[in-house]
TrEMBL record:
Extra remark beyond the main annotation: The reaction proceeds by a bi uni uni bi ping pong mechanism.
Any one GO molecular function term: pantoate-beta-alanine ligase activity
Binding site for (R)-pantoate: Q60, Q153
Species of provenance: Streptomyces noboritoensis
Protein name: Pantothenate synthetase
């Protein structure tokens, strides 16, 4: 039986058992959320405790965004959270979370919070981190789980926990997708069937980039295995073509190019911009997942290709991890 808790006092009175994991959500729960809850349950075991929070945080919505129309489905959320293994759902009111009205003192996300999502949604990450900090204090978990679908949010929460010494383990959970690739999101409920068809271009673009990267890795591996370009470089250098030799060496030494991989995604998005309804691209960026700095040519290691776009009145985000190979 899943307990529904509405106040901070009730939550504080909740008896603890074993390790406590928290999954924070804005409700309208779907299979992505259920996966976070199941992962939380597996992490703490049957003797541990899983708390799901459901709170649509006004502080992280900008003027003109969808705060008022955001879906609110608490009964179904309690049901789904319970089936996935939650012991309690904490669903406070706005007054309960912000008893003194809008908080004067807030968490500031810093430069990482001003890029990509932060540039499109000014103040969003300050509002998000402020409520996450409050919910961490209120729920006092041993671990907190967040989806990689919101990759920049996850990176900022990790950074906040580290920079401000929050005594909690932050766990990232891979993105759950529909069979056709669309990342699950509460905002998918806004999509008409035609919107949804266009929206599939987000994941298609990310998969095209992943496939391009796989092909690039194979090309470079083949070149290295056959020493084709070094052999050619040697031959060229013997006949005195020093510049051509240097170029040939460079081709073999360089890893896959971020620009080439990014372009594979861009061409899918360009096509979708001509669809009906059209996809309006906000950003497509290849970034370092820890800092959200742009991954330029020569980048090695783990990257994230992140995309945000509007289809009709719905704004969607998605991303995919891409490994550019071991850093030199
Ligand atoms: N498809 C998904 N796979 C894995 N985790 C997800 C997925 N969708 C959401 N989450 C995670 O669930 C948590 C709560 O997210 P939230 O309630 O905002 O859901 P959402 O579907 O992302 O909603 P929205 O459409 O408003 O962005 C976050 O940590 C988020 O990253
Ligand atoms: C982490 C969060 C619950 C804070 O409101 C929200 O940003 C979300 O659902 O991803
Ligand atoms: N899913 C991230 C929270 C937001 O869009 O406001």
């Amino acid at each position: 039986m899943t307990l529904l808790v509405r106040t901070a006092a009730e939550l504080a009175a909740l008896e603890r058992s074993g390790r406590r994991a928290v999954v924070m959500t804005m409700g309208a729960l779907h299979e992505g959320h259920a996966t976070l809850v199941r992962t939380a349950r597996e992490s703490v075991g049957p003797g541990g405790q899983v708390v799901v929070t459901v709170f649509v945080n006004p502080l992280q919505f900008g003027a003109g965004e969808d705060l008022d129309r955001y879906p609110r489905t608490l009964d179904a959320d309690v049901e789904l959270a319970g089936q996935a293994g939650a012991d309690a759902v904490f669903a406070p009111s706005v007054d309960e979370v912000y008893p003194g009205g809008e908080p004067q003192v807030r968490i500031t996300a810093g430069p990482m919070g001003e890029r990509l999502e932060g540039a499109s949604r000014p103040g969003h990450f300050d509002g998000m981190l402020t409520v996450v900090a409050k919910l961490l204090h209120l729920t006092a978990p041993d671990l907190a789980l967040f989806g990689q679908k919101d990759a920049q949010q996850l990176a900022l929460i990790r950074r906040m926990a580290r920079d401000l010494n929050f005594p909690v383990e932050i766990v990232g959970v891979p993105t759950v997708r529909e069979a056709d690739g669309l990342a699950l999101s509460s905002r998918n409920r806004y999509l008409s069937p035609a919107d949804r068809t266009t929206a599939l271009a987000l994941s298609r673009a990310l998969f095209a980039a992943r496939d391009r990267l796989t092909a690039e890795h194979a090309l470079h591996a083949r070149a290295a295995a056959t020493h084709a370009s070094s052999g050619r470089a040697l031959a060229l250098s013997r006949i005195g073509e020093a510049r051509a030799a240097a170029d040939a060496y460079a081709v073999e030494a360089a890893g896959p190019s971020p620009a080439v991989v990014r372009a594979a995604a861009q061409s899918v998005l360009d096509e979708a911009a001509k669809a009906q309804p059209p996809l309006a691209l906000d950003y497509l960026a290849l970034v370092d997942p820890a800092t959200f700095d742009e991954a330029r040519d020569g980048f090695a290691g783990e990257a994230v290709l992140a995309v945000a776009a509007r289809v009709g009145t719905t704004r969607l985000i998605d991303n995919i991890p891409l490994n550019f190979g071991a850093p030199a």
